[in-house]
Every structure is written in structure tokens, then in C-alpha cells.
């Protein structure tokens, strides 16, 4: 009798690493917000690249869709397996293979949680700068699959800037590997860049060589406020120079965001400064001179206040105070819980276009729903803005109305519909709003060439190809 798919999977990874049907726990099937869910026939947990390749060959033979399930922290439904398909969890492939403090690289398996990779680097006196609110659940394969950015892009760039070498399994089971530690290599196409940000639709990342940086030993953090967005960006540009390259985070918060979250957090911590300023920024500098860095930071902010560019500033005097300032930006649950159901967007645009986007999106949303709560915040480094919209109820029509208002405002300024969570299933219908027909055609051509049977995460990113 022919072996079943489940039996063949069991032979590849071991029976205890295969789950099927009703036995598949929810966290493999449902995204972080509980908005998207799938009913995969199997979830397999391979222990190494060879096993991933064998599973992909099997999936190809059986015409089974394969979705890699990372930390499930993306909210666009990209990691939700297809009904009747195969979910791959790389959670057993979580080793830090090597930290090379001479080349300043880290070789790591794709299932390693980002925070564990950060901590392992730190133990060796090195620094993996990528940092996001989801650091405790997002995995290396997921942050590569979505080209994650986060809090420190302004200084060290996003994931694309940190991936030096990559190993991946292609749709026919070929292992393609360039686990190099070389920073510069101009010999031919850099295929890794096709896979970075491709949301598991072109290949399955199994290992990566990541660029490390010297570990900063000082950290200065402040919350600042200005009277206008333009002044805040002038402050950003001034600090990039006056902090001698130490500026590491510049997180923007519009007054509506600051007001709502600091109010909701009052039970845990006092509001660091009054509401009513036009815009706030959480500013952080990281350096290496214990004696001079604090003085440099305080002096730079004092100068900006003297000139009237910064209207208020609170500088953290201890690690506890620093955590309290970061909590304004990251401890969002108390503020967001009463807004459920809400929709959160992660869009991007040139920094200069942010005020036009905010004004246009806010106008469109409030004209349609005068009662709506609308908030904006984001990372200035990557031009990445979040909009949170809630009217206290949700259905398909409301969702479509929100999407059209926000993505329409993005389109007006030539921005992008996705800057963090990927396109997934949620934004696939809107990809053409900010990508031209010729770009979409090229994307489809690439997808068909690399995955002719369409088994890798079908329906995600490009929709039906
Ligand atoms: C609180 C919070 C804060 C966040 N902050 C940021 C932020 O500041 N910046 C930012 O960019 N994002 C942010 N995100 C979004 C999210 O964390 C990132 O998109 C993250 O990179 C997803 O990683 P993950 O492991 O959870 O991937 P998942 O959500 O599991 O998967 C995302 C996509 O990657 C694919 N994938 C996963 N593993 C692989 C692999 N091995 N090979 C190929 N494809 C793979 C999946 O199939 C899916 O399409 C945040 C999310 C939350 C919940």
C-alpha cells in the first residue's frame, strides 16, 4: 500500500515532529491578532536544511502548498498556512551556529528567536542592532522574510542591510547556499535580495550570516516635543550631526497617540510630560564613551531647546526611567484594548511626505466616520508610519473603507502600502495601488520562474499568480 503524506513526513522528520488535522494547535494556524486562520492538513517541524529540502520535494510531488510559520508576529496573514496545505515550523532549527567576533558576523538558523540572537551576540561583546517590539516572538527567518526594520533603522538599517550570507531551499528542493562572511561581493546577481522580504513565496530561508557591530556601552534616552512636524525633522537632522553618529532611534508620536497611550498607562507610570505638543519623539543615542556621551547628549538637547526648536524634553536618568520612556511607545496594550476591534496599518513614504499623508488619511477617515479614533506614530528612520483606526465595530465594508482611505492617502504621496508586516493575504488586493503594472508583471515573472508549480505560500503577496 502506498505511504500516506503523513507517513512520508514522519519518515523525514520523525513522527513526533508531524502534527495533523485537529491536533494542530491554534498558534500554528492563527495570526497574532486572531484575524486570519487556516486549516492545514499537516504541520511539520524539520530539524535541519536537508529535512526542509526533502519536505519541499514531497510537497511538490503532491502539489501541496507550503507555508513557513515563523513567530506569527506579522499581522497580514502571511504565515497562516493554506487550507489542506502544509505548515513548516522551523522552531527546532534554532541554533546559533557561530559568532565570529573578528569578522563581526553571526551564523544562525532561521528558527532562532530574534531576542535570543541579540542576547547571544551581546554575550560575546557584539551587537545585532535589529530591534522590534516583537523581538521575543519573531524569528530570524520571519524577520528576513519580511525585511523587518524597527527601532534602530535610522542608524544601522533594516534586515536587508544586515544579511551578509543566506542559505535557502527553493521550490524544487534545491538547497542554494552562500553562507559567506564577505561584506562586498560583486560577482553576479545577489539572489539573497530576492528572498529577503519575499514572505516565503520564492524560497525557504534556513540559515543566515548576519552582520554584527561593536556593542555600544552607553545609552542615552529622552522624550522630546516640538511645535511642528517640520521642526521635529529639523531636530532629527541636527542630532544626526551633533551626536557624532550616535543617534540610534528616533520614534515619532503624534499628539493623539501620546495622549491616548499615556492616559491608558497612568495606572503603571506617570505621564512623562504634558500633552498638547504637536509631536513627540523618543530619541536614543548609543555610544562608547562613559565620560563624555551623557554630556554630549544633554548638551545637544539643551542647545536645541535654547534655539526654541525643542519645546520640552525629559532625559532618562536611570535604566528604570529609560524603560518607562520606551514603554510610552511600546506598551500599547492598555491603550489599544478599549479600541478593539481596530485596524493597524504600517505604511511608508518619504519623510517629507508624512504630514501630507497624515492630513489626507485623517480627513478621509473622519469625513466618513466622524466618531473614529485615528492615531499616528512610527519610525522616522525608515519613513515607516503606523495608523490605528477604530470606530468600535468592524465588518467587511468598514475594513474596506478604512483600507481605501489609508491606502488612498499613501498612493497620493507615492508611498507603500506595507512597511513592516508584509503584504500577506490582507494587502494583496492593494499591491497595485503603490506598485506599477510593469513592476507587478516582473514580480509575477519571477514567481513563475522560481516556483513554477506555485507551491510556496500561494495566495500571499501577489495573490493568485
Ligand atoms: C508588537 C509588534 C511590533 C512590531 N514591530 C515591528 C517593527 O518595528 N518593524 C517591523 O518591520 N515589523 C514589526 N512587527 C511585525 C513583525 O514582527 C515582523 O514582520 C517580523 O519580521 C515577523 O517575524 P515572524 O517570525 O513573526 O514572522 P511571521 O509573522 O511568522 O511570518 C512573516 C512572513 O515571513 C515568512 N517566513 C517566516 N519564516 C520564513 C523563512 N524561514 N523563510 C521564508 N519565509 C519565512 C512567513 O511565511 C510569512 O509570510 C511588529 C509586530 C508586532 C506584533
Present the secondary structure layout.
Blueprint: H1 5-13, E1 18-20, E2 42-44, H2 49-62, E3 66-69, E4 86-89, E5 96-100, E6 105-109, H3 114-123, E7 126-127, H4 140-145, H5 153-156, H6 159-162, E8 163-169, E9 175-178, H7 192-195, E10 204-211, E11 213-214, E12 218-226, H8 229-242, E13 247-254, H9 255-264, E14 279-287, H10 293-306, E15 312-315, H11 319-330, H12 333-336, E16 342-348, H13 354-368, E17 373-379, E18 384-390, H14 396-412, H15 431-434, H16 437-450
Parallel strand pairs: 2-4, 3-4
Antiparallel strand pairs: 1-2, 5-6, 6-10, 7-11, 8-9, 8-10, 12-14, 12-15, 13-14, 13-17, 16-18, 17-18
What general form does the structure show?
A: globular
CATH topology title of the largest domain: Uridine Diphospho-n-acetylenolpyruvylglucosamine Reductase, domain 3
| Cα radius of gyration in angstroms | 23 Å
Beta strand %:
15-25%
The CATH architecture assignment of the largest domain turns out to be 2-Layer Sandwich
Structure ligands: flavin-adenine dinucleotide
Give the proportion of residues in helices: 25-40%
pLDDT average, as an integer?
96
Gap between N and C termini: 36 Å
Q: Output the number of helix runs.
A: 16
